[in-house]
Amino acid sequence: MKTVIEKVIEDQKICNQDKIDTAGKIIQEGGLVAFPTETVYGLGADALNPKASRKIYEAKGRPSDNPLIIHIADMKALDKIAVHISEKAVKLAEHFWPGPLTMIFEKSEAVPLETTGGLQTVAVRMPSHPAALALIQAAGGYIAAPSANTSGRPSPTLAEHVAEDMDGRIPMILDGGAVGIGIESTIVDFSEETPMILRPGYITPEMIEKIIGQIKIDPGIIKENCGIHPKAPGMKYRHYAPRAELVLVSGAQEKVKQKINDLAREAELSGKTAGVIGTDESCRYYRCGIVKSIGTRNDEDTIARNLYGILREFDQQNVDIIYSESFETSGIGQAIMNRLLKAAGQKMIEV
Length: 351
Ligand code: TXA
Ligand code: MG
Description:
Shape: globular
Strand content: 15-25%
Helix content: 25-40%
Order of helices and strands: EEEHEEHEHEHEEHEHEEEHEEHEEHEHE
Number of helices: 10
Oligomer: single chain
Number of domains: 2
CATH architecture of the largest domain: Alpha-Beta Complex
CATH topology of the largest domain: DHBP synthase
Number of strands: 19
CATH superfamily of the largest domain: DHBP synthase
Bound molecules: threonylcarbamoyladenylate, magnesium ion
Radius of gyration: 20 Å
Distance between the termini: 50 Å
């Protein structure tokens, strides 16, 4: 299959509605289209068509028990796919939709089990990216979309990343340039009594608690509990991972830099190609290996935005082992560390 890449965004506005209509038609006919969202690129199919959902699992090589998120473009669409929607959930939707928040509800009859990985619950998100919203409308209102990477690899934050993984497997990629946030949405489960965060993201627990009061956090996603299985099926796999081995180093800044220098030197002496992930503030201290800045500690959003791209760049440079600083900060730092730890298979050295 030939994959075409179509540019649809210029100056943050849609510049090519025709291509979005063509993409919408492909989805309505049961095909797959990759598209930009504000978090990461998604791989979309008609969420209400079981055969179309199955194609997503094939294209990604994704385990069939790992459910998909349904993307909608307006609140009316929610009633068709979810039941027992609580007042708290509606409040969160009012505050954070369209945006990087996914909520899990009991599913309605309209949603096939192929889309929910066999579960009786359904994950729903209203993205804010103009191309995503336009595509959802053009496709009939319900797009099932995981991140558009091969299963296990870092999520795509550029159309080129999607092409690396999906070229020849899907007919079309809509190109909206670099995404704004760079890590996936926050997932909140409303299918049980007390709402629970199943995946940290740009929207933090503090932001959610301000609107609806106390929530729980899945113990399986907290760093210290890496023995406990997370509730979201997708969070249990090694994930977001580069081909190279990734090791995180955490502790006081000066000690971390020293340790990473030592480790990178040892790796190079043993004949390996080492990569180092530092920041704009720290990069000049590193002496060995291929050194890259992930962003600035003065603005953590830059770190989230560059995270997956940097892991893919190291792969392209055939690095064997990557040493990375840690980012244990409040705010989006929790989501950044969650993804880095998963990409590292939980390997972290404390100094
Ligand atoms: O930002 C995002 O959420 C991106 C963009 C494309 O919207 N999508 C995304 O999808 O990250 P994906 O498939 O890569 O991650 C979805 C996560 C998985 O961990 C999956 O197990 C979990 O959501 N999930 C989906 N439906 C669920 C359900 N009914 N119950 C529990 N977890 C669910
Ligand atoms: Mg994913």
